[in-house]
Automatic annotation (TrEMBL):
Database matches in InterPro entries: Asn/Gln_tRNA_amidoTrase-B-like, GatB_Yqey_C_2, YqeY/Aim41, YqeY/Aim41_N
Record organism: Rivihabitans pingtungensis
Organism superkingdom: Bacteria
GO terms for MF: carbon-nitrogen ligase activity, with glutamine as amido-N-donor
Protein name: Glutamyl-tRNA amidotransferase
Amino acid sequence: MSLKARINDDMKAAMKAREAERLATIRLLLAAMKQKEVDERIELDDAAIIAVVDKMLKQRRDSVTQYEAANRQDLADRERFEMTVLADYLPQPLTDAEIDALIEAAVASTGAAGLPDMGKVMGAVKSQMAGRADMAAVSARIKARLTR
């Protein structure tokens, strides 16, 4: 079953179970997917859907930070709930050891010797880690690896 079909099935299940918050989050995801399809005139595959979900999760993380700074715990909790719903559509996250192994393989394959080569390494690992790791944390790890 494709990811798109799974999301549609989950929407129907949330409707039947009368889970209003979960339904609202799934509808937001479907709207974002449809917007991307219309904007780019394409049919989204699973990889593109994962990219949309990843982008939405990043927006929610940023929102939680802002809401907590403004002492709006109610809004921060809602964003966290949306994050848990959206995270269900991402593939299994990579472990720290797997991330380090992929970084080492990318450094070896690109011949990166220092920080100026960071873009090459990021380009090599980004497609392998899409939706499976926080790319900001991966970037920090690559930077630390290339500076030693």
